[in-house]
Amino acid sequence: MLGVWIIKRDFRLLDNEALYQAVRHCEQVIPLFVFEDILLNSEYTSRFHLDAMLSALRDLQDNIRKIGGDILIKDGDIIFVLEEILKSFNISYIFAHEEIGVDETFKRDKKLRKWAKSNRIVFNEYSQTGVFRGLKNRDKWQGLWESFMAQHIVPAPDMIKVPLDYIRQNTLDIDYLKQKLIDNFDCDLLQKVSEKKAHKTLDTFLKYRGRLYQKSISSPNTAFYHGSRLSVYLAWGTISPRVVVQKTRQRLKELSDDVIFQRSLNAFLGRMYWRDHFIQRLEMEPEMEFHALNPIFENPPYKFDKEKLEAWYHGRTGFPLVDACMVCLHKTGFLNFRMRSLVTSFACHVLHLDWRDINKLLARIFLDFEPGIHISQLQMQAGVVGINVIRVYSPHKQLLDQDPKLKFVRRWLPELEEIPDEEILNNKNTGIKGYIPVICDYEKNSKVMKDYLYSLKKHYKDSETTQRVLKKHGSRRNIFHRQR
Ligand SMILES: Cc1cc2nc3c(=O)[nH]c(=O)nc-3n(C[C@H](O)[C@H](O)[C@H](O)COP(=O)(O)OP(=O)(O)OC[C@H]3O[C@@H](n4cnc5c(N)ncnc54)[C@H](O)[C@@H]3O)c2cc1C
After folding, report:
1. 226 and 330, same domain (yes or no)
2. Atom of ligand 1 nearest to the CA of 234
3. What is the mean pLDDT of residues 320-334?
């Protein structure tokens, strides 16, 4: 009996239910990864993501070879690839993880299920995180999440039987793909994605980096070190959220005397919980990729302006912290939460750009692009959810609070080197002598959007629509905190 394990964003051996079940149920397994057309042609996909996938795939290939197997790597259309396999084998099962993705992958999955059914192949899908299909509201979600995270870690298989000759004759070479897809693009500053790196990153975070997590994650000067930096590994699945949660809880038990470290790790666990909370949102409301979660906020007074969009995207707005953040993103693929909120707020509240117009651009430069978190957070930071506090971030205030010594802005904008500190620190969003002129009037523009969003929120607070959003998507956070 032969099964195909379709590798998606789950490039790992440990705690991989789809792989585990494939090995358990089938005499032979074909681990299959396809660089699909829908992925390569998607406006969400960038060289950053392809680099992450290629690096994770190479690592997984090494690990699978160590246990006697190999990976069939292909490109093109996944159904075409499966049809090709069917010419040589009788496929009894397909194993895969549920992907909570964008519309393109959602449609692909539907097609795949239909194809499997018509070929009488059993298609088994597993959840790899605390997100559940078919939920109508959040009433039971915390309990489900807790039980998922408490389940036993699924062991890594110690051997796998694959049709080696077939795979070796038909697989594509990773170096060839690297050259073809990203022209050997290599950026030293991107996190390298692998299972080993994921565990090492978690270990150093739990041993020492995470102690100052709580007080360090808002500043771009400290968050890069004291933040867990696990987002990339979680997004590409080189570590499972359950392993992260269980190891953190284990570490918490050892830290009985260190209150600072304990507080930090509890705050971190809160983020792991938020992670699934937001992914669950997209799972329950896939239309939110295109529409505001709360229809009341569907059409704020946005105005598409190509020049402004480009200036923002390339870090040329004249607001140093915003510009430094965007340059940093283009170079490293990473930014901490507060700075991601700032650049989003700036685009939507100050430049009046539609969150839908910045969605894919940002996704492309986030190495950790995770659709459920990304789209939910974009909408939240744009203030179109209607059940959260609306925050409009002032770039000047954030600069004073998070980078008062100008370390971050000067690192990414060397042209600020010659400009005196006072000139940069004292200007209140009005432009710095010797730097690019500001692209717009911060006070005036942000007031227009603030007035609009605040008044709408106030007016429709108790409306049926807002209450429906709250009931379906609102967090029952207090219950979670009591449970912990
Ligand atoms: C507009 C916007 C877009 C974002 N897009 C993404 C994205 O595509 N992928 C992504 O992983 N994160 C996204 N985030 C959330 C957050 O900024 C990153 O998860 C975090 O900065 C990653 O750093 P870390 O791994 O050191 O996080 P830590 O602070 O160490 O947190 C641990 C993990 O919890 C999750 N997490 C942290 N903060 C949040 C949050 N606010 N909401 C949901 N989950 C969270 C992440 O998986 C993270 O790796 C976005 C935030 C904003 C404001």
Report:
1. no
2. 47
3. 98
Other CB atoms within 10 Å distance of the CB of residue 112:
18
Say if residue 305 is in the same domain as residue 349. yes
- The DSSP secondary-structure symbol of 191 reads P
Do 324 and 267 share a structural domain? no
Give 9-44 pLDDT, tens digit per residue: 999 999 999 999 999 999 999 999 999 999 999 999
Ligand 1 atom closest to the Cα of residue 378 is 1
Quote the percentage of the chain above a pLDDT of 90: 90
Cα-to-centroid distance, 91 and ligand 1 (Å): 38
Is the same domain home to 103 and 33?
yes
- Please name the residue whose Cα sits nearest to atom 44 of ligand 1: 275
Specify the pLDDT at position 176: 96
What is the overall mean pLDDT for the chain?
Answer: 95
Q: Is the pLDDT of residue 351 over 60?
A: yes
> Which residues are near ligand 1 (CB < 6 Å)?
217, 227-231, 234-235, 268, 271-272, 274-275, 278, 336-337, 340-341, 344, 366, 368-370, 373-374, 377-378, 381
What CATH number is attached to the domain comprising 381? 1.10.579.10
